[in-house]
Design goal:
The protein is an alpha+beta fold. The protein contains 41 helices and 18 strands. The longest helix has 23 residues.
Length: 953
């Protein structure tokens, strides 16, 4: 498979960006190494963005996984930590457009802190750094607050705690961090504004063990009387209990009940407005922000800001809250106190209280129908930023985690998750089946749908996923963008729920990809299309893959640049080798698999051709050819175009399979091209054509005979004879009679005689008799080697004549020992051995004479066609070698082509040899053999397979 250079450059850019940020943390941004690596990152970013791209490069983050244009990026821990940093900061992706400048990349990099900083601050720093930038855009999954107020809430009032003294500061902080104590302080502060009976007694702090009447904790020394507060030891304060005490009660029934109030005291006007049925009126959004501001003030006091003297005005701060806000605050604290009876109070209590209040308020607004689900997230965002100042005051734990390099979950995500958990199932289902389903974060959709699947509610789960996918067609650009981002994260869930859903989601995204005009949305939609396609490929959902490829063809007609960039990222072409293997192994091809391979004719035919060329058994080759034939005209057209005008290496690989499927096309296109091929390419083509088993292979070999290198001609003649086709008689007879192709020699006549011996025809017998028995005045007309070859052929075609002629032929029986092997009609192997292989009693030594650095060969096994030898140095397969075989004081010369390696040995094939020396070589083999190695087909198959593999390399 061909690797996409832009994809490789994009991965290199991500690595360089990580290294750049690491150098910045170590040396700073003005160090020479940091500046140098910024230049490297800039060059790789330019290479990563295709020149004709409309979208540029989309670098996304999903949890600890980096995504390049939606494709998961396998990375080191540094890349995973970088992805976590982006995710925790609420950044879904970073879009680098084609018009990005080096200055904008520098500003982007400098926005990352070099010292400790919270991930939540990164998004804001990036936005500030990229103001006015047109080539870099930050995409966030969560809503951006439009009217958030980031301010330091001031302390409007404090409790009078003079009696505590300076030494009581720690005790006071513990009270503010304990919900029960905080509840007592708020009740006492409220009581200071309500008329109560006079009492006497020493002024002192409200705390455990106080009872009876006496001076309360008020600025003006007023007394607070009434039934006691549970757990305080004060029997004079009472809690009016009700269903609203539980923080989650409003989310279940909308019933806000009890509140704190001193017993017997009159209710001030407007303090706790109620409906006629007794339900407390919920505070407005403005009042809720006042509550959060008050909690921030409490946090400042709890953290020691302002000292013990600042605590004296807490009473006024509470008194300034509207009545509904006071009731809501008391109920929330009471609920939190009930939940933390066993927990040790710490500084996170106020933050938990603020988060609970925000979730409760948002839930009530949603359930009462006051806001839509899309506005709920905006509301939570605004309140989250209001709570952020409280976190900054009390966030020592998070600071420690940040200092340790641990990335914590975004507070925005925590708040949103808690809100979703509090929504009843009926509300969740209603939202997920509405047109606003895109507002729900993908993780919430996944958790809800996964729960449905576990319970067996498959139909409902499918309906929700179908509705979510349809949000990609929304008229709102923001909705389309967030739906696309959600589909990227939910791709695996779509596959698990029902493979058919992947096809539906791909249809929505693919159609949108063809018509989307917004560049930012188009980038998100492209990433979703890639991710869904990858999931279809990994889950073997062939119908979804087929639909994805068809949709991509439609996109290519309108936006070819985008389609080309997406095709290599979808992950389908990469899995074509696995698909082909699966199709060849299975008795019945999986539904849709053939359709997928049809839509990828180039990749499919490349794989099938490679497998066809490696087949050693005929049945395996037939299976490959049948699968290739099932791909139809699209696959054949690619094979034809590759042979007609494709690169040489590609054309060579396609010849074998095309010879099997369309031999007429090979006859038309191959002769005109093969003459320009290298000798090794010509040699490989001849082997592939002969091994294809095509009925027309003999004609193809005859057509290319005059165009191949003279050293390849003996192989072509051999393979023509192995076909046993009578069509070759005319050309073989002319060669036997001495009409040789240009550049060839007498060795080719011997090969032609051997080929005639494999074609049973009257013309063959007559020609062979003429060669074997032809005489002149003083001796025989033809050379001894040519006559031996003719007589060996006649032993197969006319045995009676051969036996009668042998005594007067002057040929000894020993000369006839190594005869060419017969063709096995029912052979299960694609190519058969042509000559008997002999294992020598003693290795035969040979040396090369034509190489710049000659080598020595120890020939262990040999035949008239070649052999296997241990070689003193490496030679590339296909190398032409002039061999000198040492026979005592005599030497034999031969021209050979090196073939393939077999463990420590290397095979070679003799392609030219003087005929007299070939006769001597024949007698040498016959005299030195210890035993004949039978023409075992398994041995032949091994040889064919290794030769093909070596030539392929």
């Amino acid at each position: 498979m061909k690797t996409d250079p832009h994809s490789a450059s994009a991965r290199a850019f991500v690595r360089s960006l990580n290294i750049l940020l690491k150098f910045a943390r170590l040396y700073g941004y003005d160090h020479v190494r940091t500046i140098e690596h910024l230049e490297i990152a800039w060059r790789e970013l330019q290479a990563a963005i295709p020149p004709a791209s409309e979208l540029g490069l989309l670098l996304g983050a999903s949890g600890s996984q980096l995504l390049l244009d939606g494709v998961p990026l396998e990375g080191a821990p540094a890349e995973r930590q970088f992805a976590l940093l982006l995710s925790t900061a609420g950044i879904a992706s970073v879009q680098f457009f084609p018009n990005v400048t080096q200055e904008e990349l520098r500003r982007f990099a400098r926005a990352f802190p070099t010292s400790k900083a919270k991930p939540a601050e990164l998004a804001l720093q990036l936005k500030n750094a990229l103001v006015g930038a047109r080539g870099v855009r930050i995409n966030e999954i969560c809503f951006i607050a439009t009217d958030a107020r980031l301010k330091d809430a001031s302390v409007a009032a404090q409790l009078a705690v003079a009696s505590l003294g300076d030494a009581g500061q720690d005790q006071f902080k513990q009270w503010l961090n304990d919900p029960k104590k905080l509840l007592e302080l708020i009740a006492a502060a409220q009581g200071s504004h309500i008329d109560g009976g006079s009492g006497s007694g020493p002024a002192g702090p409200l705390g455990p063990g106080t009872s009876g009447t006496g001076t309360g904790m008020g600025v003006r020394g007023t007394t607070v009387t009434g039934p006691g507060v549970p757990g305080t030891g004060n029997p004079e304060i009472e809690f009016a209990s009700g269903p609203g005490n539980d923080l989650s009660s409003s989310s279940r029934g909308g019933d806000a009940g009890g509140y704190w109030l001193p017993a017997g005291a009159p209710v001030p006007e407007g303090l706790v407005p109620s409906y006629s049925d007794g339900r407390t009126v919920a505070p407005s959004e403005a009042e809720m922000f006042k509550i959060l501001g008050a909690l921030t003030s409490f946090g400042q006091i709890a953290s020691g800001q302002g000292g013990i003297a600042g605590a004296g005005t807490l009473q006024q701060q509470i008194a300034q809250l509207p009545g509904t806000a006071q009731a809501t605050l008391r109920q929330a604290i009471a609920g939190l106190a009930a939940q933390t009876t066993q927990a040790k109070p710490d500084e996170t209590m106020l933050v938990q209280l603020a988060e609970h209040l925000a979730i409760r308020f948002a839930l009530e607004q949603f359930e009462h129908g006051d806001v839509k689900v899309s506005a709920v997230r905006q509301m939570l965002d605004r309140m989250n930023q209001e709570i952020e100042s409280l976190r900054n005051i009390l966030g020592s734990h998070e600071n420690k985690m940040t200092d340790a390099g641990i990335l914590v979950e975004s507070h925005r995500e925590i708040l949103d998750r808690q809100f979703w958990a509090a929504v009843p199932d009926s509300g969740k289902q209603m939202v997920l089946l509405s047109e606003d389903a895109w507002c729900i974060p993908p993780r919430n959709v996944q958790s809800y749908v996964a729960g449905l699947l576990e319970k067996g509610n498959v139909a409902e789960a499918i309906e929700i996923l179908q509705n979510y996918a349809s949000c990609a067609d929304s008229e709102e650009a923001d909705a389309r963008k967030k739906a696309a981002a959600g589909l990227s994260e939910l791709a695996e869930l779509y596959s698990k729920a029902n493979p058919r859903l992947l096809g539906e989601a791909l249809r929505h995204v693919g159609l949108r990809l063809s018509i989307e005009q917004d560049a930012e949305v188009q980038g998100m939609v492209s990433a979703a299309f890639v991710r869904l396609s990858q999931e279809a490929a990994s889950s073997r959902s062939f119908s979804a893959m087929e639909q994805a490829l068809e949709l991509l063809d439609g996109v290519e007609a309108q936006r070819p640049g985008i389609a080309r960039s997406l095709r290599g990222k979808m992950g389908i072409e990469e899995r074509v080798p696995d698909f082909v293997d699966e199709a060849l192994r299975a008795r019945q091809v999986a539904g849709g698999l053939t359709g997928v391979l049809k839509l990828l004719p180039q990749a499919s035919m490349e794989q099938l051709s490679a497998r066809f060329n490696r087949c050693s058994q005929r049945q395996d080759a037939e299976n490959v050819a049948n699968l290739a034939g099932d791909l139809g005209e699209e696959g054949l057209q690619y094979l034809r175009s590759a042979l007609r005008g494709g690169p040489v290496a590609e054309a060579v690989e396609m010849v074998g399979l095309l010879s099997k499927l369309d031999p007429q096309a090979v006859e038309v296109f191959l002769p005109g091209r093969i003459k320009d091929f290298s000798r090794s390419a010509q040699d490989r083509i001849a082997r592939q054509v002969s091994g294809s088993g095509a009925t027309g292979r003999c004609r193809i070999l005859l057509d290319i005979l005059d165009y191949v290198d003279p050293l390849v001609m003996p192989l072509v003649i051999d393979e023509i004879g192995m076909s046993g086709n009578c069509e070759a008689l005319g050309r073989l007879l002319t060669i036997v009679d001495g009409d040789l192709p240009i550049g060839s020699g007498q060795y080719l006549r011997v090969k032609a005689v051997e080929a005639l011996g494999r074609i049973p025809a009257a013309e063959s017998i007559a020609a062979l008799k003429r060669i074997a028995g032809g005489k002149k005045v003083f001796g025989w007309t033809h050379s001894q080697e040519l006559r031996i070859a003719a007589l060996q052929a006649l032993e197969k075609l006319d045995l009676a004549w051969a036996q009668e002629f042998l005594p007067k032929s002057g040929i000894e029986n020993e000369d006839l020992t190594l005869a060419p092997l017969a063709i096995l009609a029912n052979s299960k192997f694609v190519r058969q051995r042509r000559h008997t292989r002999v294992r020598l009693r003693k290795p035969l030594t040979a040396v090369s004479t034509n190489l710049k650095e000659n080598c020595r060969l120890e020939i262990k096994t040999a035949s008239l066609a070649g052999g296997v030898a241990t070689i003193s140095r490496h030679l590339a397969p296909g190398t032409q070698v002039q061999l000198k075989l040492q026979l005592g004081l005599r030497n034999l010369q031969a021209t050979a082509l090196m073939r393939d390696y077999r463990a420590q040995d290397m095979a070679f094939e003799i392609v030219d040899m003087n005929l007299d020396e070939r006769t001597k070589y024949r007698r040498l083999l016959a005299g030195k053999l210890t035993r004949l190695v039978p023409a075992v087909e398994e041995d032949a198959a091994t040889t064919v397979a290794t030769v093909n593999a070596a030539v392929a390399r």
